[in-house]
């Protein structure tokens, strides 16, 4: 659907959700995704490594074995969400750079360093 399965307001919150495999398939974003595809995702995100699919097992999953006939290949909404996610990620990085530059500037000023 174009965005990561784990959501959190902070990186720490997202990390906690990843470590505990807390994720959902929210509507309407995941409505067009088949139950078979969601099953594959569930099996790949299994916390217990003994229960988690191997790469070989994943390639044998029924969702990957299906032919493309009859499957919806409209990925436009996924592409829009992916672009939005990437733009947000780039924006967050830019904000971090600005904050770091301002912090560096204030530390330099405090120590009398002029650039």
Q: What value does the average pLDDT take?
A: 83
Q: Briefly note the structural class of the backbone.
A: mainly alpha
What can be said about the biggest beta sheet? none
What helical percentage do the residues reach? Answer: 40-55%
| Number of helical stretches of at least 4 residues | 5
Radius of gyration: 21 Å
Describe this structure in words.
The chain is mainly α and 115 residues long. The protein contains five helices and no strands. The model has no long low-confidence stretch (mean pLDDT 83).
Task: Summarize this entry quickly.
The chain is 55% helix and 0% strand.
List keywords for this structure.
elongated, 115 residues, mainly alpha
List the helices and strands and how they pair.
Blueprint (H helix, E strand, L loop, with lengths): L10 H9 L15 H10 L10 H5 L2 H4 L10 H35 L5
């Amino acid at each position: 659907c174009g965005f990561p399965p784990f959501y959190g307001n902070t990186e720490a919150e997202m990390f906690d959700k990843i470590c505990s495999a807390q994720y959902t398939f929210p509507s309407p974003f995941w409505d067009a995704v088949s139950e078979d595809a969601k099953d594959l995702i569930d099996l790949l995100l299994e916390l217990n490594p003994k229960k988690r699919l191997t790469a070989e097992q994943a390639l044998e999953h029924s969702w990957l074995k299906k032919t493309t006939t009859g499957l919806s290949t409209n990925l436009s909404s996924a592409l829009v969400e992916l672009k939005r996610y990437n733009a947000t990620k780039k924006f967050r990085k830019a904000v971090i750079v600005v904050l770091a530059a301002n912090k560096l500037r204030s530390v330099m000023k405090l120590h009398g360093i002029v650039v």
